[in-house]
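Researcher: Sequence of Cytochrome P450 follows. Predict its structure.
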Amino acid sequence: MLLAFFALSAPLVAVLIWLQFRYWTRCGVPQLDPSFPFGNFSEFFCQKNGIPSTYANLYHRTKHLPYVGIYLSLRPALLINDPELVKNILTRDFEHFHDRGIHVDEETDPMSGHLFALGGVKWKNLRAKLTPTFSSGSLKEMFPLLVEKANILQRRFLQEIASSEVVEVKELAACYTSDVIASVAYGIDMDSINNRDDLFRRMGEKVLAHDLITSLRLALAFWFPKLKVMLGSKSIAPVIQEFMTELVRKTIEHREKEGVHRKDMMQLLLQLRNGVSLKRNGEQWTEDSASKNPIKSLSIDEVTAQVMVFFVAGYETSSSTVSFCLFELARHQDIQAKVHQEIDSVLAQHEGALTYCSLASMKYVEQCLEETVRKYPPVAILNRECTKTYRIPETDVTIEKGTPIVVPLMGMHRDPEYFPQPNDFQPERFEGGAPSKAYFGFGAGPRLCIGMRLGILQSKVAVVTLLRKFRFSLANPEDQCNELRMKPRSFILTTEGGIQLVVQQRHVETA
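Model: Prediction complete. Tokens:
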């Protein structure tokens, strides 16, 4: 009987799948032919490529089209290849695409309710409240902390090269950014640079671990939100949630009991929790005493969700930028020499002191970081969801509400039409600003990365602190001509086996 049921139902299922895979054709949109059960993502699910490379390959196959229909398994999505249309979606027509389409359920999955995933009015209000954390005034107050952590990193490099010239720079860069974000977001002082088994660091690593379970967890959140609800999947593993929530609880209790006040994100969230809002005067933000509300406006879980996402996003993206930048400078000794010259010259003018002002004048270093973000975008795709029916300008094509929208950032950033010789590292591209309308390194529009300025600042501090003291070269001569190999199971752009470089100490007056 059961076999007969399957025999009779199989043709019906096949027809339904065929109809689903014709969705974009019925909408009058060109589409890539999908295959069951992975849609257009067989190379990712078969572990041939990570998500960044998979989307980049889709872009290069279809870049002659301004947009193309694809399938996230059975779910239709629209790939946007045209930079002008991307700009419209992210900025001018933002009201139609203000959400990311990531499932949020703060009751059953508290850690899902963070700024990155929230949509609508709740996202807008929380974004406005968190903005003071990343003002120029706040960044200047954080700056000494960044320099302190970077100096610890520099001393660690000295210890490493005492035993071997070859150093794994990706891991050390990740430890540095972990320590910075832990202090800024959680208000705790940690030294994972010298203690790589620190429990906080290891818990943070697990959130974006490159294993099958984590990949499935992320795939459900981004691609299959309804299935995520049915399966009861959580945003992060329960053990990580419990650890981070308890850490936040203890931090809040300590600050409230002892009257501790720090200029960091945790303090701002604590103020918001206690019903205190901020008012702006130029670049300065001060408490609005009239706004005090005795009712707690943020729960412990809500505070934890915000600091959690900033930790995860901040340490991984910035550490990748630092290590990729050092790798490219090791490959291009002439560019590295120009960076050394700029650093030495600027620091000499400031009596060897790395200050907020002296760092800001290192324009070529910043161009190197921008070129690194172009070639190795920390977030290799931009995702949105159509929140209101939208007709693509100058066409008869209508995008239905609820449709996932994807911008293949890495593919666009490596398109020779917009960036000649795209695989070459050319910081001069960014002399005078962004070189192309196709550059979206940190997104665009109202959902531009809120932590962009902090990310650039902490990356720049690390690169300058290391390059004022060291010279980098390739440990593997084959890397001179070959591109780095990326992990095939990863949702983010990360290398297979880290980044090993030869590190030698420089001897200059400013060092």
